[in-house]
Design a protein that fits this description.
mainly alpha; transmembrane helix; globular; Putative oxidoreductase; DoxX; 7 helices; membrane; 69% helix; DoxX-like_oxidoreductase
């Protein structure tokens, strides 16, 4: 099972996808874990997810981990499919629970109540592609799976 999760081709497109997704997700994860970039840190994010949004505590922790450790895993290409699955789940949840009601477009001009889901859909597309392709070139996954 682990070999199947790690196996990947020497694919430069997968490298580009995982770096793009990981580098975009990491600042969001750092907001949630350490309060960087104007975030509220782990405790504040956990409290918001559980008390305000009504998420179960375990799910709140998984969201925080998916955006932080999952993003680091994507950047390194370590457990790429697992990290991509976590990001895909977070993006799907964000679309359904928050952004769907605001429509498709991001709030470029401040004329709508919140952000639409176009960004989330792009991240979801990259995550699904990475679940299919794996980490690709220069990934830890490829290094581990090629040792056998």
């Amino acid at each position: 099972m682990l070999k199947r999760i790690l196996t990947t081709e020497n694919d430069v497109a997968a490298l580009v996808m995982r770096l793009a997704l990981g580098l975009v997700m990491l600042p969001h994860g750092l907001q949630k874990t350490f309060g960087l970039f104007g975030g509220h840190g782990f405790v504040g994010t956990y409290r918001y997810f559980t008390a305000t949004m009504g998420l179960p505590g375990v799910l709140a922790v998984l969201v925080i981990l998916a955006e932080s450790l999952g993003a680091l895993g994507l950047i390194a290409g370590f457990l790429t499919r697992v990290g991509a699955l976590g990001v895909a789940a977070v993006m799907t949840g964000a679309i359904v629970m928050v952004h769907w009601r605001n429509g498709f477009f991001m709030n470029w001009f401040g004329s709508q109540q919140g952000e639409g889901f176009e960004y989330h859909l792009l991240a979801l597309g990259l995550a699904v592609a990475l679940m299919i392709k794996g980490g690709g070139a220069l990934s830890v996954d490829r290094g581990i799976s090629n040792r056998d």
